[in-house]
Design a protein that fits this description.
Keywords: Hydrolase
Number of helices: 10
Oligomer: single chain
Protein name: MBL fold metallo-hydrolase
Bound molecules: zinc ion
CATH topology: Metallo-beta-lactamase, Chain A
Helix content: 25-40%
Order of helices and strands: EEEHEHHEHHEEEEEHEHHHEHEE
Strand order of the largest sheet: 6-5-4-3-2-1-14
Structural class: alpha/beta
InterPro entries: AtsA-like_MBL-fold, Metallo-B-lactamas, RibonucZ/Hydroxyglut_hydro
Shape: globular
């Protein structure tokens, strides 16, 4: 039986990076003999290679929603995989609008892409990508691997999804970007690993002050209505009866004054199970 694992390539919520911060969101899921990339924030290609995985070994890409911290590097990643010798088509599942992003990316690179086709003899990049629109329900069902999607609560984004992977008797749920939603407990029921996004109430005011070029109140209101408190992530883990709760998509993801205990404390009030603090490059074997 093939081994299964999840690698957190980037665990920071939001597209900004600063000295000492982790990288924006992407996750590599290896289950059912497949290598699946979920989201492609800045730093994804580096993160994949750091796992010892060639870019051309990615079988499938799933994009949970169109915020920049989840798609900024999708184009550069696919382009780089192509120049690194991609030999087969990668299927990319994502919300409506992802093809607009792709068209814009390839348009921005048309000079270079045309050169590589006509001067260097590459087959057209377009032959190696296929985009499919993601919706609720079964996304992939193939050779013992089942991937399901549930629309989550990430206003004002409406096409934003949580994902559940099942293969070889193992199951993993990635919350994607979402505020607390009771339905998550049923979606994550009994899974071995729940990777859930979190924000820390007590650190939001300082974060909004640091950003500087956005309206502080609007920014804070976004975090509160669109992301999940650590307490609520702990509550979901308890209600769902998961084997392990892993935090990712930290907001803030660049505050060196916050300790692992700061992140654990709220969830610990709700659940006494195995809580891991995600880090860039962390691998969880299933
Ligand atoms: Zn995000
Ligand atoms: Zn988002």
């Amino acid at each position: 039986m093939t081994s299964s694992s999840i690698a957190l390539l980037g665990v920071k919520g939001g597209p900004a990076i600063r000295p000492g911060s982790s990288m924006p969101t992407s996750t590599l899921v290896r289950m059912g003999g497949r290598t699946i990339l979920v989201d492609a924030g800045l730093g994804t290609a580096r993160g994949v290679c750091d796992q010892g995985v060639g870019l051309g070994e990615i079988d499938t890409i799933l994009i949970t929603h169109l915020h920049g911290d989840h798609i900024l590097e999708l184009g550069p990643l696919l382009y780089t995989a192509w120049t690194a010798g991609l030999k087969r088509k990668i299927v990319i599942y994502g919300p409506e609008g992802l093809t607009t992003y792709w068209a814009g990316f390839t348009a921005s690179m048309v000079y270079d892409i045309d050169l590589r086709i006509h001067d260097e003899g590459h087959r057209d990049l377009a032959e190696f990508v296929e985009f499919r629109t993601i919706g609720e329900g079964v996304v992939i069902e193939d050779a013992g691997l089942v991937v399901r999607a549930m629309r989550n609560l990430h206003p004002p984004v409406t096409d934003s999804f949580s994902l559940r992977f099942e293969a070889g008797g193992k199951s993993v749920v990635l919350s994607g970007d979402t505020t607390f939603m009771p339905e998550m407990s049923a979606f994550a029921r009994g899974c071995d690993v729940l990777v859930h996004e979190v924000y820390l109430d007590s650190a939001i005011d300082a974060l909004c002050a640091r950003i500087g070029n956005a309206d502080k109140e609007k920014k804070k209101a976004h975090f509160v209505r669109s992301h999940c408190r650590t307490e609520d992530a702990g509550r979901i883990a308890r209600e769902a009866g998961v084997g392990m709760l892993v935090f990712n998509h930290f907001v803030p993801g660049d505050d060196p004054t916050l300790s692992d205990d700061d992140w654990r404390a709220g969830a610990r009030n709700e659940w006494d199970g195995d809580i891991r603090i995600g880090r860039d490059g962390m691998v969880i074997e299933l």
